Task: inverse folding
């Protein structure tokens, strides 16, 4: 899953960036509203975490512009505790949810997961296929009832596939979910992680559609 973090506070930004990446998200971080606009025009994101008080272009204006462009991905706004009017304006301008600063990072993660789940049309937090169960929220995976540990990058490949069972994602699309702007992409990275996932989860869960991409079956 690829996220855009819009935050001008360097300390908050660094903590959130680090945490989201360790959870397996690909994250681009921009620090003002104009850069947010540029990023949103250049790239398709699965979710945006948007601070409202921003230099160059106000967060509310960034939000209104993206909704005017018919960009429908979930947007979580971050506002100060006493900024009730800002929160109301944000929700009315098309935000899906909000966090109040200073926010708890685990709460932010839970709200992100909830929005991504809803965006995928999936109310159920657990995916089950054959002898495999996967809970993206708790990162618990079992095969035949026995726990299996996946790396952050394996999660990064698996989660977009799980979000839309039955939909084929190309290698390029998975690469985009896997890396932020500044990371190096080795040309066979996706295959390496898919191989690791198949070794851990069995060969049936992630299916290779030759020359097209990968999918996980609908359940
Ligand atoms: Ca700010």
Result:
């Amino acid at each position: 899953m690829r996220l855009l973090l819009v935050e001008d506070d360097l300390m908050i930004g660094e903590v959130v960036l680090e945490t989201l990446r360790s959870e397996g998200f690909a994250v681009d971080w921009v620090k003002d509203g104009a850069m947010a606009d540029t990023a949103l025009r250049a790239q398709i994101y699965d979710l945006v975490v948007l601070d409202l008080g921003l230099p160059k272009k106000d967060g509310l204006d960034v939000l209104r512009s993206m909704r005017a462009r018919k960009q429908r991905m979930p947007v979580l706004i971050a506002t100060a505790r006493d900024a009730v009017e800002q929160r109301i304006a944000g929700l009315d301008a098309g935000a899906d949810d909000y966090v109040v600063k200073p926010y708890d990072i685990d709460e932010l993660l839970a709200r992100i997961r909830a929005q991504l789940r809803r965006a995928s049309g999936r109310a159920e937090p657990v995916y089950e296929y054959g002898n495999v169960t996967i809970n993206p929220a708790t990162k618990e995976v079992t095969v035949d009832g026995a726990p299996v540990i996946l790396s952050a990058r394996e999660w990064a490949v698996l989660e977009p596939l799980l979000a839309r069972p039955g939909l084929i994602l190309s290698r390029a699309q998975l690469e985009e979910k896997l890396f932020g702007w500044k990371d190096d992409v080795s040309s066979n990275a996706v295959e390496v992680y898919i191989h690791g996932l198949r070794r851990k989860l069995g060969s049936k869960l992630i299916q290779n559609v030759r020359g097209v991409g990968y999918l996980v079956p609908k359940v």
